[in-house]
Write a structure and sequence with these properties.
Blueprint lengths: L1 H17 L3 H4 L15 H12 L7 H14 L3 E5 L2 H14 L8 E5 L8 H5 L3 E5 L10 H11 L3 E5 L8 H8 L5 E5 L7 E2 L2 E2 L6 E5 L12 E5 L2 H11 L14 E3 L2 E4 L16 H32 L5 E2 L8 E2 L5 E5 L5 H10 L5 E2 L17 E2 L4 H9 E4 L7 H16 L2
Parallel strand pairs: 2-3, 2-4, 3-16, 4-5, 5-8
Antiparallel strand pairs: 1-9, 6-7, 6-13, 8-9, 10-11, 12-14, 14-17, 15-17
The structure holds pyridoxal-5'-phosphate (PLP).
Length: 421
């Protein structure tokens, strides 16, 4: 009887989604929202199944999600977390605990990106070394990076793939080759992007991921760290769960460690850790999303291509180019960079007045942020491109909730604004 009831629930959820259109899961009333989860009965049923079966935390769905996602990217291990921010904290902390980073070391941060690339560095007693970006790729300027390495000898680089655009990982890895500089790829905006046929997130010592709502796949909130290193995987798992020794065997007493004698193993901790675990329900949701990731990326690429072609004739703005044999941008979103004669703020306000949601390119220039400007830091050079992008650029959505009609609407509204200047 119980199984019959379960099946009725699953069937009803399926029917509900068969009768539902995309507008029912659109996150808000924007005509063209900046992002939003693209999901259906498979994801919701997977979540319901967890709760009906008593699968709550760190059981099969999480293990499966770690295995499936790390396999998709081509890395040996995945350690799921509750956000991309916590993934960055875990990755940096694992390097500290494994002796590859010491408090006070410099960590390179591209000056234009999201705040959670810089805050974990400060929270762990490291110092951000802000390096300029390249205004065409919105990624770290690798010439500037070479100068910054010579000048300040950083021990780690946060290699961010901005808005889905892959950083030139061949050049980055050759810059660090033969040094002790660790590379953490922050791939929170770039699921499925590739550099020269190889998936980003598989080049550095670790890569970090976000599954927040607007990202290529979502678990609502969630993240992951990937690594090929046996040692880092163990440390990441220990740090994710309070700092408990991973060799924990369930033995109740008999542990003698620190100043404890004959103590309960479950409550014995070797490291100062965190609790950043992902619950089973989001992982189950993520497992279903992952099956659709390539198809969802194809929709992003189609939308981005249509925007690039549609805006090609607009000489007062620039955008990302089409993909080519080397660069596979997975288009987290679609940037528009205004030239000197166009006010970014006025143009973004105009688009918003027409129902098109916009965002600045993440945090503008990180070292100008109120939370960061008085914290320890080094700025390498004048961060000229970063400050130009801070003042002249914004992005709009190109995610799978948008179809040709919405994309054409964006193109027409942008043209209408530029014609009126
Ligand atoms: C580059 C980058 N790193 C880290 C994060 C943090 O991810 P989360 O929102 O899951 O904490 C984000 C968020 O979008 C991001 O864009």
């Amino acid at each position: 009887m119980k199984d019959i009831r379960k099946n009725i629930i699953y069937e009803n959820i399926k029917k509900y989604f068969e009768e539902t259109s995309i507008s029912d899961i659109k996150p808000n009333s924007w005509k063209v929202p900046i992002g939003g989860g693209f999901y259906g009965a498979d994801e919701v049923n997977a979540v319901v199944e967890c709760y009906l079966n008593g699968s709550l935390s760190i059981q099969e769905p999480v293990i499966e999600f770690e295995r499936n996602f790390s396999e998709y990217i081509g890395m040996k291990y995945g350690v799921a977390s509750n956000s991309g921010t916590s993934a960055n904290i875990l990755a940096l902390d694992a390097l500290i605990k494994n002796g590859k980073l010491n408090r006070g070391d410099y960590v390179v941060v591209p000056s234009t990106t999201f705040i959670s690339v810089a805050t974990p560095i400060l929270q762990l007693g490291l110092i951000p070394l802000y390096v300029d970006i390249d205004a065409y790729t919105l990624n770290l300027d690798l010439n500037e990076l070479e100068g910054a390495i010579k000048a300040h000898e950083p021990k780690c680089i946060m290699a961010v793939h901005t808005l889905g655009n892959p950083l030139n990982m061949d050049r980055l890895m050759s810059i660090v080759d033969g040094t002790d500089i660790q590379v953490i790829e922050d791939c929170c905006e770039a699921h499925g992007a590739e550099w020269d046929g190889k998936k980003i997130g598989s080049f550095g010592a670790m890569s970090t991921w976000s599954f927040y709502v607007a990202h290529h796949i979502t678990t609502a909130e969630g993240g992951m760290v990937l690594t090929n290193s046996d040692e880092l995987e163990i440390t990441l798992r220990e740090l994710r769960e309070f700092g408990r020794d991973k060799s924990y065997s369930g033995k109740r007493y008999g542990i003698t460690s620190g100043n404890l004698v004959d103590f309960d193993e479950r409550y014995t901790f070797d490291k100062v850790g965190w609790n950043f675990r992902m619950a089973d329900a989001p992982a189950a949701f993520g497992n279903q999303q992952l099956k659709k990731l390539d198809d969802m990326i194809d929709i992003r690429l189609k939308n981005a291509s249509r925007l690039i072609d549609g805006l090609f004739e607009c000489k007062m703005i620039s955008t990302f180019p089409h993909n080519n044999d080397v660069v596979k941008n997975s288009f987290y979103s679609f940037p528009i960079i205004c030239d000197n004669n166009v006010s970014r703020n006025d143009m973004a306000r105009f688009l918003e007045s027409k129902g098109i949601e916009t965002r600045s390119i993440m945090c503008g220039t990180l070292s100008d942020q109120p939370a960061l400007c008085d914290e320890p830091m080094v700025e390498y050079g004048g961060l000229v491109d970063s400050r130009m992008i801070r003042d002249k650029a914004f992005f709009v959505g190109c995610h799978p909730l948008l179809g040709d009609d919405e994309i054409d609407y964006v193109i027409n509204i942008v043209k209408e604004y530029l014609r009126g200047l």
